[in-house]
């Protein structure tokens, strides 16, 4: 029975004194998960309800927030179960599924941020052409591609590595991220090259496009009137803050895997928790505070709640 268990299941080896602090861990993650759902869905519902928010920019924001909720749902419930379990284990197929969801949704986030950057570029730099370019069809295509492309890109390495021989059944982490590749005996050169190409296409190209787009907006805004500069600052700053936050956390994920042996177990746990905690909570707070129209509707919502 034990031999069967070892072959079928992978053990998460990144937990720190989980038997001692299981209820504290559970409380922190459970609270964070509830807050993520409440914060994100509040803004998504506001965008859904109010017609003046039925614009491409707000639709992309809603898609981004929904993406964060799905990402959290791929990670948090499993963590909560692990904290209350005697053994922190998972089946290999479930681990592959979590890996696939985490990285495909991360790729989708980069593409959604790219679509938002393009939307802001057209709105500020080509305002007269904006209604023609950013039609409902265009927005629907952007949304479809933002999820379809990363899903296809991530599915290939998952399929390629699914049947590889594994020399270890202990994962040096608390979730199925890039550290999964340390389980395999050998990774072929083709798979390594494909992984690098996927990283460039899914993350680096969108990041460069976003930086180029916002640089163009900055240049054009600087030479325009005060009203244009104000509009650019109000609508672009939240997107830039979210981009910086997400890029730093993606870099964090790579550092944890590549330099994991140089960190203590506690340091790796803290870094991993930062990756999964901050961003899903950060997004709705930034858009709720910094986007003028969303902030206005939030204030009305809270004032109505107080009256009731």
TrEMBL record:
| Listed Pfam families | 7tm_4
Localisation per UniProt entry? Cell membrane
Signal peptide (residue range): none
Quick check: keyword Membrane in the entry? yes
Q: What is its main location?
A: membrane
The molecular function GO annotations come to: G protein-coupled receptor activity; odorant binding; olfactory receptor activity
TM region(s), chain numbering: 23-50, 56-76, 96-118, 138-162, 193-215, 236-257, 269-289
Question: What are the residue boundaries of the G-protein coupled receptors family 1 profile domain, all occurrences included?
Answer: 39-287
Question: A single GO CC term, please?
Answer: plasma membrane
Q: Does the keyword Cell membrane apply?
A: yes
Record's bilayer topology term? Multi-pass membrane protein
Q: Which PANTHER family match?
A: G_PROTEIN_RECEP_F1_2 DOMAIN-CONTAINING PROTEIN, ODORANT RECEPTOR-RELATED
For this entry, the protein name equals: Olfactory receptor
Please report the organism this UniProt entry assigns to the protein. Answer: Seriola lalandi dorsalis
Q: Lineage of the source organism?
A: Eukaryota, Metazoa, Chordata, Craniata, Vertebrata
């Amino acid at each position: 029975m034990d031999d069967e268990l070892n072959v079928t299941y992978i053990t998460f080896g990144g937990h720190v004194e989980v038997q001692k602090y299981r209820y504290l861990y559970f409380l922190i993650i459970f609270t964070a998960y509830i807050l993520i759902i409440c914060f994100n869905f509040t803004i998504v519902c506001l965008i859904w309800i109010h017609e003046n928010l039925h614009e491409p920019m707000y639709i992309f924001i809603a898609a981004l927030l929904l993406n964060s909720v799905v990402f959290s749902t791929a990670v948090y419930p499993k963590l909560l179960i692990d904290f209350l379990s005697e053994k922190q284990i998972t089946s290999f197929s479930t681990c592959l599924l979590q890996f696939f969801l985490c990285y495909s949704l991360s790729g989708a986030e980069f593409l959604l941020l790219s679509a938002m950057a393009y939307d802001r570029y057209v709105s500020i730099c080509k305002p007269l052409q904006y209604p023609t370019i950013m039609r409902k069809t265009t927005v629907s295509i952007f949304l479809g591609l933002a999820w379809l492309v990363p899903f296809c890109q991530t599915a290939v390495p998952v399929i390629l590595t699914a049947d590889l021989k594994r020399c270890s059944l202990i994962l040096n982490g608390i979730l199925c991220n890039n550290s999964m590749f340390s389980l395999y005996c050998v990774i072929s050169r083709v798979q390594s090259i494909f992984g690098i190409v996927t990283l460039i296409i899914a993350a680096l190209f969108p990041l460069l496009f976003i930086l180029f787009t916002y640089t163009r907006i900055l240049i054009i805004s600087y030479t325009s009137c005060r009203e244009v500069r104000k509009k650019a600052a109000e609508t672009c700053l939240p997107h830039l803050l979210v981009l910086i936050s997400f890029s730093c956390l993606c870099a964090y994920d790579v550092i944890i895997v590549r330099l994991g042996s140089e960190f203590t177990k506690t340091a790796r746990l803290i870094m991993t928790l930062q990756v999964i905690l901050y961003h899903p909570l950060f997004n709705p707070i930034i858009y709720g505070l910094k986007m003028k129209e969303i902030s206005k509707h939030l204030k009305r919502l809270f004032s109505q709640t107080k009256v009731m």
